[in-house]
Amino acid sequence: MQFIRGFRLAMLKKDTEVATKVVQAAFEQSVALPLQDLAFFLPGFEYQERLMQMTLLAGHKKKLSHATYLNGEIIVSKGAELDLNGMKVTFGNEATIIVDGGVLKADGAQFIASLDANKTMLSLRNVGLTKIQDAHFFGASNVRAIEMNNAKVELDTCSFEKCYDEERGGAVYFTNSDHFVLRNCVFEHNSTLGKGGSMYIAGTEARHMKKMDFFSRITGKVQKVKLVLEGCHFKGSRADMSGALHIYDADITINNAVFDSCSSRAGGAAIDTLNCTISASGNTFTKCIAAMNEAIVVVGSTMGTTESMIGKFELCEPKNLITK
Q1: Who is most buried in 12, 24, 137, 306, counting CB within 10 A?
Q2: Residue 31: CB partners within 8 Å, gap ≥ 6?
Q3: Percent helix / strand / coil, the chain, rounded to 5
Q4: What are the Cα distances from residue 246, in Å, to 31, 148, 241, 315?
């Protein structure tokens, strides 16, 4: 009865915030509600559980049951587990999920940045092999999707839309790690004012990275990234340098990828590599335009690179490929 009275008040006021609070209170009292039917009575209503700052410690497990709105940091420590259960997760002010040694289950989840979002949505640190399938990341032209440090990651059939970072890696920032595989992933309209409109990838051997505070705690053997891209699609990626991919110190395999309408002011409209080995076939570059250089710029590669080896080029400007 308390829920009915409260939700009726929300209907009269046409206030979805009040409705959310009423539903949350009902769930806290173990009241079963027909969530899918409530929008009939209050058009536009979609219940989202509110989740504030939280740290999951060893032995703790958290599984989402409803679409969730995050405020603050959710930290998953070593020995802990966060299961997003395929839910829609909306990121508000200061919201981010940091998996630091713990386990993340994110298959089928939706990572959605609100206009208030101001942090990378997902950080993976010090984790073993993490596989994510069928996840969708929407950055609202405001924040980056994923950053990874000391992680082994495989992404399959994931999509990244309108992700943004001011300095580098509009959708993905991958460093200090040796295993990164992407299969059938789609990147649309991601951007940065710096390098790598969709992805910035650097091994720990990259000289410029060793001087950065980000790597000051690295111990042990430095490593090259083993990067595999298969069947991925990059559309409308933009950057000041390296429209889609900016890659340092990596062994790269790129097969059957499509780069469509990627652009940059400097460097490659689609790809820049430095000190990389490249194995590539069946790729397509269409309408990739750079103001100063080419569709692809290969610098210091230890393996010879030719246009025919990489794939086919259509309407790219000013040229297709340059090797320095």
Answers
A1: 137
A2: 3
A3: 15, 45, 40
A4: 51, 15, 8, 21
Q: With cut-offs at 50, 70 and 90, classify the pLDDT of residue 206.
A: very low
The residue type at 65? S
d(CA 150, CA 152): 7
217, with CB counted inside 10 A (0-12, 13-18, 19+), is exposed
From residue 121, alpha-carbon distances to 10, 61, 135, 163, 297 in Å are: 31, 20, 13, 10, 30
Phi, psi of 215 (to 5 degrees): -105, 10
Q: Compute the distance between CA of residue 9 and CA of residue 32 in angstroms, rounded to an integer.
A: 19
What is the spatial distance between Cα 127 and Cα 61, in angstroms, rounded to a whole number? 16
Q: How many CA atoms lie within 13 A of 91 on its CB side?
A: 26
pLDDT digits (tens, 9 = 90+) for 1-33: 999 999 999 999 999 889 888 998 888 888 888
SS3 9: helix
Element at 18 (helix H, strand E): helix 16-28
Between the two ends of the chain, the Cα-to-Cα distance in Å is: 74
Specify burial of residue 111 (Cβ count, 10 A radius: 0-12, 13-18, 19+).
buried
DSSP character for 213?
Answer: G
Q: What is the DSSP letter of 93?
A: T
Tokens at residue 261, please?
A: 């309408």
Please state the pTM of the whole predicted model: 0.87
